[in-house]
Write a structure and sequence with these properties.
The structure holds two protein chains of two kinds. Chain A is mainly alpha-helical. Chain A contains eleven helices and two strands; from the N terminus they run ααααββααααααα. Chain B is mainly α. In chain B, helix 1 crosses helix 8 and helix 9 packs across helix 11. The chains are: A mainly alpha, B mainly alpha.
Chain lengths: 295, 333
C-alpha cells in the first residue's frame, strides 16, 4: 500500500472508531454529570450491548443495525434495575460507596455473562459492501456504525436541550435544592438520567460490535472502561461535548499508535498501545486534572 | 521511650488478631492434611490487612493494588533466577527486591495519583495493573507473557527435597511472619498519631489539611507501606510457593476485588476487620472452589453490593456499635 493511502486509511479508521468511542463515553459523562457518580462498571454494560447485537444476529439473523433499539431498551431496563435497589442508596454516601457499588455491578454483569455464554471469544461476519474513499477501501459496516453513533449523539442532544425532561435534568445539575424547590422530582430525574446513560452505554457496545464484530467476550469490558476513562478525563468528566471530541482524538491516537508500533520489531503493537493509553491517562491527570478542555 | 509505649499499646490492641495467627500456626502443625487450606486463609488475611492499611484507613480506593503484589512476586522470581548460585542468600535478596520493587512502583504511582481525589484517584489506579502488565507483555520484558519460572533453579541449588520444603513449609512460615508484621504495623499506625491523621483524612481531607496535618505525606506513607507488605506477600505466596510468576495470573484484577470485598466485609480501617473478612471470604472461596469452581466472582459481586448498601462499616462496625462493655470494645478494634 502506498504511504499516502496508509496515512489516509489510518486517519479515516481512527476517526470512525473515535466517533464510537465518543458516544461510548457520553453515557459515562451523563451519569457523572447528573448523579456525580463514576460508573466503574462502564465497560461491562458495553459488553452487554455487544452480546445483544451478536445474539440477535446469530440466532435470528437480525440486521445488526436493527439490534440497536433492543440494546437501548435493555440498557434502559438495566439502568432502572440497578438504580432503585443500589445506586439510589449510594448517591449521598461517601464516594467510596458509589465507586464500589458500580464496580460490583460491572462485576456481576461480567460474571453473569460468563456463566450464561462461557468465556469464549465470539464474532460474526456481517457481509456488506466495501466502499472506495480516496483510494482507501473501507467496510460500509464501519461507516454505518459511525453514522449510528452520530445519530445517537443527536438523540442525546435533542433529549437534553429540546425536551422538558432535558430541562429538568439540567436544572438538577445546576442546583439540586433549587430544582426541588420548583417541584422537580429529583429522585425520578436521577433514575431517568441513570437509565438513559446506561441505555446509551449499552447501545454504544452494539455499535462497537458492528464496527469490529470480533473479540466479543465477557471480559472485554475492562479495557473499554479504561479507554472510556481516558477519554472522559481528556474531555473533562461530565462534559458530553468534550467527551465526543476527546473520543475522536483518542480513536486517531489509537490507530496511529498501532500503525507506528507495528513497524517496531519484537513488540506487540495492540498490547503496547494499551500501555500508552494508560500512560496518557496518568499524564493528563497530572497535567490537567480537569480535562484537556476543562476550565 | 515514646516508641516503646506505642509498641506496648499496639501489642495490647493486637492481642486478638495476633492470637488468630498463632492459632492458625498451631492448627497448621497439628493438621498437616489441612495445611494448604490454612496457608490460603493466611494469604487472604494478609491481603486484606495490607490493603486495609491504605484503603481502609484513608478511604481511597486503589483498583490497581494487585500490581504491587505482582511486583513482589517478580522481585523474588528475578532474584532467584539470576542469583540462585548464592543459595539461601538469593531468597533473602528476593524478599528485599520484592519490597524494593513494590515500593518503587508505589512511589511512582503515588507521586502522580495521590495528588488526585476520590473518583479521579480511583480512575488513575484502575489502569495501573493493566498498564504494567501491558508493558511487560507488550514490550516482552522479563519473560513477557510467558513469565518467569524458578522451580528448576530452586531444585538445582537446593536439591529436590529442600526445594520442596522451601516451596511449602518455608513459604508458609514466611506467610505467618508477614501476617504478624502486617498486624503489628496496622496496630502501630492505629495507636500513634499516624492513625489519627489517616482517619482525619478519611473523614474530611480539607479539614485535616486545615488542622495542619501534612495530608500528602501521610497518604504516601500509607500507600507505600500497604504496597510493601503486598510485595512481601507476592514474593512468598506466588513466587516462592508457586515456583513461577505469570503476568496473566499475578496481575489478575480478581485479587484486588477480593481485597476490596474482604476489607469492606470485615470493616474498613479496623485491625480485626480484615482478619474476619479474610477468614470468612477465604473459607467461602475454598468451599465454593470444592463444590463448583469458577463461581467465586459471581458470589463476590452481590456480597459487595449488599455490604456497601447495608453494612457500610462492615461486620466489625456493626458489632462494635452494639457492644456496650468498654473492655470488649477495646478488644474489637
Amino acid at each position: 500500500m502506498p504511504f499516502a493511502d496508509l496515512v489516509v486509511g489510518t486517519l479515516l479508521y481512527g476517526a470512525l472508531l473515535g466517533v464510537i468511542y465518543g458516544i461510548a463515553t457520553a453515557g459515562l459523562s451523563l451519569i457523572f454529570g447528573v448523579l456525580k457518580i463514576v460508573n466503574v462498571g462502564h465497560g461491562a454494560f458495553m459488553m452487554i450491548g455487544a452480546y445483544t447485537t451478536y445474539w440477535f444476529f446469530t440466532l435470528y439473523g437480525l440486521n445488526p443495525v436493527l439490534s440497536l433499539p433492543f440494546s437501548l431498551a435493555i440498557g434502559a431496563l438495566l439502568g432502572l434495575a440497578f438504580y432503585y435497589p443500589v445506586v439510589r442508596r449510594v448517591i449521598d454516601a461517601p464516594e467510596m460507596a458509589s465507586l464500589l457499588a458500580t464496580f460490583a455491578m460491572g462485576l456481576l454483569l461480567q460474571e453473569a455473562a460468563r456463566m450464561a455464554w462461557t468465556s469464549d471469544y465470539r464474532g460474526f461476519s456481517w457481509e456488506v459492501a466495501r466502499l472506495e474513499i480516496g483510494g482507501v477501501s473501507i467496510y460500509a459496516s464501519k461507516l454505518i456504525a459511525a453514522g449510528l453513533a452520530l445519530l445517537l449523539l443527536l438523540f442525546h442532544y435533542v433529549v437534553f436541550y429540546r425536551t422538558k425532561l432535558g430541562l429538568a435534568i439540567r436544572a438538577v445539575v445546576q442546583d439540586r435544592e433549587g430544582a426541588l424547590v420548583v417541584g422537580i422530582n429529583v429522585d425520578r430525574i436521577y433514575a431517568l438520567s441513570f437509565s438513559i446513560g446506561i441505555a446509551i452505554t449499552v447501545a454504544s457496545g452494539s455499535l462497537l460490535a458492528i464496527y469490529n464484530p470480533v473479540g466479543i467476550n465477557p471480559y472485554m469490558g475492562a479495557i473499554l472502561t479504561l479507554k472510556a476513562f481516558v477519554i472522559a478525563v481528556m474531555g473533562g468528566l461530565g462534559s458530553i461535548g468534550g467527551a465526543f471530541i476527546a473520543g475522536v482524538l483518542f480513536g486517531l491516537f489509537e490507530n496511529v499508535s498501532y500503525v507506528v508500533l507495528t513497524g517496531i520489531e519484537g513488540v506487540q503493537p495492540l498490547v503496547l498501545t494499551r500501555f500508552i493509553a494508560f500512560t496518557l491517562l496518568l499524564v493528563i491527570l497530572l497535567v490537567r486534572p480537569k480535562g484537556l478542555f476543562g476550565r | 521511650m515514646v516508641f516503646t509505649n506505642a509498641v506496648r499499646r499496639a501489642l495490647r490492641k493486637a492481642r486478638l488478631t495476633l492470637a488468630a495467627y498463632i492459632i492458625l500456626g498451631v492448627l497448621y502443625l497439628a493438621f498437616p492434611h489441612y495445611s494448604q487450606l490454612i496457608a490460603t486463609l493466611m494469604f487472604y488475611m494478609i491481603l486484606a490487612q495490607a490493603f486495609n492499611i491504605f484503603m481502609g484507613m484513608t478511604g481511597y480506593i486503589d483498583f490497581g493494588y494487585v500490581a504491587f503484589v505482582a511486583m513482589g512476586a517478580y522481585g523474588m522470581a528475578l532474584a532467584v533466577e539470576s542469583l540462585y548460585e548464592l543459595g539461601w542468600a538469593s531468597i533473602i535478596v528476593g524478599f528485599l527486591l520484592a519490597v524494593a520493587l513494590s515500593v518503587a512502583l508505589a512511589s511512582m504511582v503515588g507521586a502522580i495519583a495521590l495528588r488526585l481525589r476520590g473518583a479521579y484517584f480511583a480512575i488513575a489506579t484502575i489502569g495501573v495493573n493493566e498498564g504494567v502488565r501491558y508493558l511487560i507483555e507488550g514490550a516482552n520484558l522479563v519473560g513477557g507473557s510467558e513469565g518467569v519460572i524458578i522451580v528448576r533453579e530452586l531444585r538445582a541449588t537446593f536439591g529436590r527435597e529442600t526445594a520442596n520444603f522451601i516451596m511449602t513449609g518455608l513459604a508458609d512460615l514466611a506467610l505467618l511472619l508477614i501476617g504478624i508484621t502486617a498486624v503489628m504495623i496496622t496496630a502501630l499506625i492505629l495507636s500513634t498519631r499516624v492513625g489519627y491523621a489517616l482517619q482525619a483524612i478519611r473523614e474530611d481531607e480539607d479539614a485535616a489539611r486545615a488542622l495542619g496535618i501534612n495530608v500528602t505525606r501521610y497518604k504516601v506513607m500509607a500507600f507505600t507501606i500497604s504496597a510493601g507488605i503486598g510485595g512481601l506477600l507476592g514474593a512468598a505466596n506466588w513466587a516462592l510457593k508457586g515456583g513461577y510468576v505469570e503476568p496473566a495470573h499475578v496481575f489478575n484484577i480478581h485479587y484486588t476485588v477480593e481485597a476490596i470485598v474482604m476489607v469492606m466485609l470485615g470493616g474498613p480501617g479496623t485491625l480485626l476487620g480484615p482478619i474476619i473478612g479474610g477468614l470468612f471470604y477465604g473459607s467461602m472461596n475454598y468451599f465454593l472452589g470444592v463444590i463448583k469452581p469458577g463461581l467465586q466472582l459471581l458470589f463476590l459481586a452481590p456480597i459487595l453490593l449488599a455490604v456497601v448498601v447495608a453494612l457500610p462499616k462492615g461486620l466489625m462496625g456493626y458489632v462494635r456499635e452494639r457492644v456496650k462493655d468498654p473492655r470488649l470494645r477495646e478488644l474489637l478494634t
